[in-house]
Design a protein that fits this description.
It is built from 13 helices and no strands. By secondary structure, it is mostly helical. The radius of gyration is 19 Å and the shape is globular.
Length: about 300
């Protein structure tokens, strides 16, 4: 059990590093692609790779058993990425970064409400406040203002809630006997199904001509293979080992990784205030994880 707990934390940390750096890839792709086009291509690549890795037919055992997979695909893939991307059109990017970091809070509360974990302790909320303070500081260090954009802020809050729902549904599907790879493949299938109608409503261009540029091809493969296929399998495995609450706390680290990746790839400076923000985020992560891991790991042992 101890080895599984250690592995779960390492997997969650790895995924956070990849997801934090994926912001850079998305920023590059936005030069030539509509946000929804990026989502569709990354979902399609991820599903094809997962299918090739496990080509066994995965017909629904029943529609009732399939509903959690459909919900996870709709909430954690389609709605999450749609709400997050469109929120950027109505509010400051800094607002999105701050509010989306509330996802671990939604996960903890929804897990408790669904009676799948113990009530979060006060240290979890204290760690959340400290980490959020660091996230605000790291955002302001980038020179962006924090303002009030009601529609965009509400869309981002909806995205954070959707990720919390995804965390609950991932634990629901685990007892069905699928491997993490198979479960992730089913989730991406439904995410792709729910996203494809936007091709017609937004008159998108899904031609492959833009991938003739090596930079575009590399970044879409990084999102599809690494950030989507591989990372979602690892994230679901981490959830099975240490629980959704403990796994989602690692989301606090995403801004830290983004700052470092932006400095390396985009040559953006790391300011002293950024270093202070990173320290606050790490402290908040440690405080939340220190207390949340114990009940989460006990819970994961019952469902793994």
């Amino acid at each position: 059990m101890k080895n599984k707990i250690v592995t779960g934390h390492l997997l969650a940390l790895f995924v956070t590093i990849v997801w934090g750096s994926a912001f850079v890839s998305t920023k590059v792709l936005l030069r030539a692609f509509h946000p929804i086009e990026i989502i569709i291509f990354r979902f399609l690549i991820a599903w094809i790779v997962l299918f090739l890795c496990s080509p066994k037919p995965l017909l629904p055992k029943s529609w009732k058993s399939e509903l959690p997979f459909m919900g996870a695909g709709l909430a954690g893939l389609t709605l999450y990425f749609m709400l997050e991307n469109f929120a950027l059109s109505y509010t400051f990017a800094s607002n999105v970064g701050i509010i989306i970091a509330a996802a671990p809070m939604f996960t903890a509360l929804l897990m408790w409400a669904c009676r799948r974990s113990a009530q979060p302790r006060w240290t979890f909320f204290a760690g959340f406040v400290i980490a959020m303070a660091g996230i605000v500081l790291i955002t302001l260090a980038g020179g962006e203002a924090v303002g009030f954009g009601p529609l965009g802020d509400l869309l981002t809050l909806g995205a954070a809630f959707c990720w919390g729902v995804y965390g609950v549904l991932v634990e629901v599907v685990q007892p069905q006997g699928y491997t993490d790879l198979q479960a992730t493949r089913k989730i991406f299938f439904w995410g792709l199904i729910f996203t494809l109608p936007f091709v017609f409503t937004h008159h998108l261009d899904l031609s492959l001509a833009r991938f003739a540029a090596p930079e575009m091809l590399f970044n879409v493969l990084y999102l599809g293979l690494g950030s989507s296929a591989l990372c979602f399998v690892f994230w679901n495995k981490a959830t099975a080992y240490i629980g959704s609450v403990a796994t989602n706390v690692y989301i606090y680290l995403t801004p830290v990784v983004t700052v470092i990746a932006s400095a390396v790839v985009l040559e953006e400076p790391i300011l002293p205030s950024s270093m202070g923000a990173i320290a606050l985020i790490l402290l908040g992560l440690w405080l939340s994880q220190k207390k949340a891991a114990a009940p989460a790991s006990e819970n994961s042992g019952q469902i793994a």
